[in-house]
Structure formats: structure tokens, C-alpha cells
Task: structure prediction
Amino acid sequence: MKTLLLSMDDVGRTLSMKEVIEAVKEGYVAFQKGKVQQPDIVSMEMPHNNGETDIKSCYNALNESVSVKVASGFYDNGKENDLPTMIGLIEIFDGKTGAPLCVMDGSLITGIRTGAAGAISSELLSRKDSKTVAVIGGGGQARMQIYGLCQVRDIQTVKVFSPYPEELPQYKADVEKETGVKVIICQTVEEAMEDADIAISTTPSKDFLVPAELVKPGMHIVAVGADMDGKNEWDPEIFAGAKIVNDSIAQCISRGETRNPLMAGVIKQEDIYCEIGQLLTGEKAGRESYEEITIFDTTGMGIQDNVTAMKVYETARDKGRGTYFEFLKGEA
Result:
């Protein structure tokens, strides 16, 4: 049999944020309905190289496939070399035979499916009249979150702050070109958070960047950066009394932003409102008042990679993109 190899360019020409949003919704619902086997994430840290690597995998019974992603974040990349910060590889196997169907770049998929997750949460939990967004961080994911958000809300202004201000002029240029939304570079977190309807954090910070007094009633928070024990972007006190939604409760209480208020004794596990799949199935209600504070904590799930990668694989296969190589002898 032949295995399809897709480069970053092949993947990029195949991806569409709008389509990925719909695919990730389907993935969240499949997970909620018990159609997904998703082992614990395997994580490795290389602090002397300012890097980390995660392995995420799952079996999706709905599309009969197994996916494995190795994704790394090396945060000196781009400063000391010309490599991207986020680098990844995804393998897809036939769930009926175990045969390798596709090997593809996972960097773009990781970025766009995470942006899609944030957008889905905002569609379900933010106020419908949300116009102004605070973004903490100025890297690739800070871009993807806005690209996804603009698919579901009529955003007018992005106010961005980064611990690395040198990256923000290019961020402003890229986001304004891609979306037409006005981007304001902020010197402080306080400036970025002022008047924000939605606030998004995308940094690898280990010390919280946003104090509780900056979060106003009615705000929706998308906590993206904390995906490993020890990371912390938001003051744990923010979670007290908020509507807390996780992508996976098991993951978020062990490695997400939700872990921090649990460890601090600010909340108990029963204070977590639900998983996002429960909102999509209608099992739980989304935003229920104009004033409530809502939080979506996303640690990233193997099922997001699975449904996105399968869509890329099927589209690329049908359009004749990529290169085939002989990995195993025999017929599929």
C-alpha cells in the first residue's frame, strides 16, 4: 500500500478556518458521546533549550481512524534561527487495519484547530454584541485565535499586549491584513484589558499575567497558553463564581489553567460547569446572562487533531496533492 506525505505547503493549501471550526465541533460532540478513545498526553520538557514536546493521540470510531501527533514548542526559535516556534507532525492510521494512511505537517493543524476551539467557545459563551478583544501574547496562536473569532463574532478592535513587545508590529500588520480589524498595540496588560468583551491568553507564562481586578462582568475568557503543569496566565481568583467550561475536564484539572484555582483552593472540581461538548449537544446551556463571566480552558485534545487531519487528508487525496511513498507492501 501507499502512504500519502503532505508538506506544510500541502496542508496550508487545504485548510480553511471555517471548515475546521465545523470539524472541531463534530470532534467535541463525538468525544462527548463516547465515540473517542483518547489516552493521556505524554509530555517532555527541555528547559535548557526552552522547549517542550507533547504527544497527543486518539481513536475516533466515527471516522475509523487513529491519529498520533508529536508537537513541540521551542520558544527561542525565530530568535536564534529561522524555524517556527511550533513544530509538529501528524500520522493517520486506518482504524480497521492499522495501516498508515498519511504523514503530514502538524504545525498548521495545531494552530488552526486551537484557533477554532477558541472561536467555538466564543460563539457559545461570549455576548453576541462583543466587539473588542484583549489578546495576551503576539505569536502564531495569538493570530489564529483572532482569525477564528472573526468567523463567529463581528470584532471591531483587537488590543494586544505581549511580554515580548518586539513581536507586536508584525502581529498588527498580519492581523489587520488578514481580517481588516483594527489592532492597537498596548504597553500594559491593564491597557489591553480595558473595555474588552473577550480576553484571550496565548503565552507559556508560569506566573499569572492578568490580575482578577481587570476582569469585568460579562467578559468571556479564552485560556489557551496553560497546557502543562506549572503554566499560569490568569489570577486563580478570577475563577471564583465564573462559569468554567473545559475542553476535557480530566486534562484541564491536571495540566490546564483550571488546575491553578483548584490547587489554590479557590474552586472545587464540582464548580466546573461542563465540557464544551455538553454545550454543543444541548445538554448544558451556554451564556445565561449578560453579566456572567465565562471561562473556556483549552488544553488541546487528540480528537481536534484527528478530525482536522482527516479532513486535510481526504481533501488532499481527492485533489491529488502531496506525494505517495511505499511504506508497507500490500493492498489497503
